[in-house]
Amino acid sequence: MKKKIKIGVVGVGFISQICHINSLHEIKDCQIIAIADMRKDIAIKVAKQYGVKNIFNSHEELIKSNLKLDAVVIITKRTMTGPISYDFLKSGYNIFTEKPMCCSTDQAKKILKIQKNKKLIFTVGYNKRFDTGVIKVKKKLLELKKNRELGKIIFIRVHRFSGTGYMGAKEKYKSVENSPKKNEWAHAPSWIRSSREKFSYHGYLNTFSHNINLIRYLLNSTPKIDYVDMSRKTANLVILNFNNKFKCSIETRDYKDEDWDEYVKIYFENGYLQLFTPPQMKKNSSAYFVIYNRLKKVKKSYKFKSKWSFYNQSKSFIDDIKKKKNGISSSYDHYKDIKIIEQIWKKWLKK
Predict the structure, then answer these.
(1) For the chain, how many structural domains are there in total?
(2) In what order do the strands lie in the sheet with 95-98?
(3) In a shared domain, residues 179 and 198
(4) 3-state secondary structure at position 183
């Protein structure tokens, strides 16, 4: 019998229950053996459901226990993710967190320094990278760029006017306890002075870094910022510049409902490739894409059967732990997203 990867989970709220714990539980070659949450009631209930005997009231308690773990999955309030990650890395643990891993490049540098020194694995949860349709479209895009069937890329449109994408999902267990306010780092860089802009920056980083991360992944390139409008009077607009070869618009608006309107449309000289990504919580679904050839007047759709991207993401993390190497969604790569979003706000605040 193969040795199972032993996992500790810190934070067992909504996203943790729906997306991460369920996915980890399905993976045969890993086992959740510890749970830590400052809310005692919810920690006990979730631990009981999954047969977890080791329960801790804080991440510090888990670290002090010296429990033998191969990795820790950290799903907490975004301002707590950075300091908790830092503590686990400092103590020699491989980790997975939701995005963002922290809220500024200064915080990220502190985290990356200790990760590099300890030679540890740190995966950040950009589940779109593990969507079967996204993986397929990345390969197709490389083919189109190589064979020039549609010519050169001339423009890209990244569009997300979305709600929560929860699809009615609800956690099985809710806590009646209030989480203590501790172990938090600042929710925005110190150079953003306005409370309104700090709030706006944090929301954009938490939500729309997904879209910046995705386009970087598809193109294997990191852009510069040409134009920014973050007034939020209508919708946010950012124009990215990829090596002075083509521009990319990032159009975003956040709604409070659950409707989903998200796609990436890559325009070529003689057609386009359009990727449609599903709501986050739509299980066993995949992104799909359409290719249109203007010269031949032919449009073709590519759809796929797939496991949920959150499951694929968890499975990939477990595989990375086995291989002892950082994967395709590492903290080192995610640093670029935080840096880009800081550059967006620097450009915006100079106006």
Answers:
(1) 2
(2) 54-56, 30-36, 5-10, 71-74, 95-98, 122-125
(3) yes
(4) coil
